[in-house]
Predict the structure.
Amino acid sequence: MIYQTGRTRNAIRKAMRIGELFILGFFGKTVPDWLNQFAARYGLGGVILFDYSCRTQQYDNNICSPEQVQRLCTEISALPSGPMVFIDQEGGLVRRLKEGRGFAPLPSAKEFNHLAPDHKRALLTASFAEMRRLGIHYDFAPVIDVDYNPDNPNIGKIKRSYSADITEVEANALLASEVARAQRVGLCLKHFPGIGGAMVDSHQEFMDISDTLRPEQEELFYSLASKMFGDAVLVSHAIVRQWDRECPMTLSAAGLGRLRKRLPDTLLITDDMQMQGLQKALGTKEASLQSLKAGMDMLCIGNNLFDQEQEMAAIAEYIGESLRDGILSASAIEQSIARVRKRKALLTA
């Protein structure tokens, strides 16, 4: 007979709710069986919705109409452990809820920055009120990357930054939080530590921002995070050699330690773990383990850049085994789960 210590039993119990650390995407307009089974077995922190499918290269994924999205969000929220619903609704090109499908208008950040204050507030109020009505809990916004490089293919070129003036970026983010708080929609600042100066698209390669990251950009995350309703930060796959010569921020204990020291209670969420830089280096399963080991709270796996839906349970098992074997810190995982559940209590009531 194998006798288990209290600590081991405690770790095993934590492993059974390891799914709280995951934000998962899926293809289709109803919850698939695999996701239902995952939530029942491991719990589930969140689900992310997309309109465009990289698999079919069409706008035929999770979003069709306001009525359909509301039904889907109700179905998601009814899953075991009551997962939160996340979406990228920045405005402009990065906007999953589009006017052509009957949703509220929302211009790009760059266009938004030039609007009159009353117009800004009206647009945000309509957008956040719609999200709350639909059953969406978290918006992966605002982008607070300063527009240091207008030719950046992932930020500047597609108008995702408010401005090259950091004070304007800050003012727009604070307004967004004020309105989101009133409508009870959580916000997640992105993309730590600030990728506005990058030269490559993070979906394709790791970005080395060592020579373009400015201290005031990093500080903006520290000053704004706790003021955002939902108090969350999305961490990029960027490399900052001064902090870590080898690992991108999502896998860097040094980089995340720097962030956690300044923001002890903030919920830290990875950028999509299926982005090609990570895939080329490690693959989703190993990168997920290394990310949690480095100090991340939640893993975002969109299952949109490519299909790994049937591998999600195996990744959760791998994380659970690593917890039981002591590769992951039980106390750190417990704190991460507590941060997730705190947001659930705040946003899903």
